[in-house]
Write a structure and sequence with these properties.
- The protein is α+β, with helices and mostly antiparallel strands and 256 residues long.
- It has one domain: 3-Layer(aba) Sandwich (L-fuculose-1-phosphate Aldolase).
- Helices cover 40% and strands 17% of the residues.
- The chain has helices at 3-19, 88-91, 97-109, 122-127, 140-143, 165-173, 193-213, 223-235, 237-252, and strands at residues 29-35, 43-47, 63-66, 71-74, 77-80, 115-119, 149-152, 178-181, 185-190.
- A 9-stranded mixed β-sheet has the order 5-4-3-2-1-6-9-8-7, with helices on both faces.
- The radius of gyration is 18 Å and the shape is globular.
- The protein starts with a helix and ends with a helix.
Length: 256
């Protein structure tokens, strides 16, 4: 994706998800692949520095990350990432280390993925904390993910340089855009930033409905109808997602 466009869309997605109350403090993360504004031959990862509120994200806030060299790409060259120092000043000049190790591994293991969202939204977090959790086909929004969701049923801690959590999750999500994480939250990974944003919103809505009726007799949608609805939604997925994101670009464009 062209750098300026990616920055505008990514800043907008952060603000919109904050408006929907789907992020948690400053510890969740959303990224996008783009061509570097400093080196037009290099594809980089756009990442928000740790400590910026999602509701305040602006296009120029995003760092360009070269995961091959574990560095920040700048107009003056590469600046190595330093996750050993825990000074507040340095923490706020870099992406969160867990974000870097998780997103870089997912991108490295899935070359078709161009955008990733990771959130601990309320209903998704509650659903994934239930033993043997599963997204049930109980609502139209559930059907969006009928054939597009994977499950990580083993919480393994935080992704760090010393753990294999990032690589493990990267392998589990392969072939799907949504990965529900036991005792944790959700990862959405897509070829398109708009779709990653849109799915992050709708997986929360689907989980919310399921939790609200879980102690009742669920009127589960049949597999045939769930699959038909999934295909109907899938056919319009990118266009509808882009309209969803564009509605917020129009809302926030005067701030950019």
């Amino acid at each position: 994706m062209e750098n300026d466009t990616a920055r505008i869309e990514l800043a907008t997605a952060h603000r919109a998800l904050a408006l929907y109350n789907l992020n948690e403090g400053v510890n969740n993360h959303m990224t996008s692949k783009a061509m570097s504004r400093f080196d037009g031959t290099k594809e980089i990862i756009l990442m928000l520095p740790f400590g910026i509120q999602w509701s305040d994200a602006r296009p120029d806030d995003f760092l360009e990350i070269d995961s091959e060299n574990s560095s920040i790409v700048t107009s003056k060259g590469l600046v190595p990432l330093n996750f050993k120092s825990r000074t507040i000043e340095l923490l706020m000049l870099q992406p969160l280390d867990a974000a870097y190790y998780l997103h870089s591994q997912i991108y490295n293991h899935n070359s078709d993925i161009k955008a990733i969202s990771h959130t601990h939204s309320n209903s998704v977090s509650a659903l994934t904390s239930i033993k043997d959790f599963k997204l049930e086909m109980v609502h139209q929004n559930s059907c969006r993910f009928y054939a597009n969701v994977a499950y990580d049923r083993e919480y393994g801690g935080i992704a760090t340089s010393q753990s294999d959590e990032g690589a493990r999750m990267a392998k589990i999500i392969k072939g799907n855009e949504v990965l529900l994480l036991a005792n944790h939250g959700v990862i959405v990974a897509s070829k398109h930033l708009a779709v990653a944003f849109d799915h992050t919103y709708y997986i929360e809505r689907a989980a919310l409905v399921q939790l609200q009726i879980q102690n009742s007799s669920m009127n589960t949608i049949s597999d045939d109808v769930a699959e038909m609805t999934f295909n109907q939604l899938e056919n319009n997925k990118l266009a509808f997602a882009q309209v969803h994101l564009n509605s917020f670009i129009n809302k926030f464009q005067s701030d950019f």
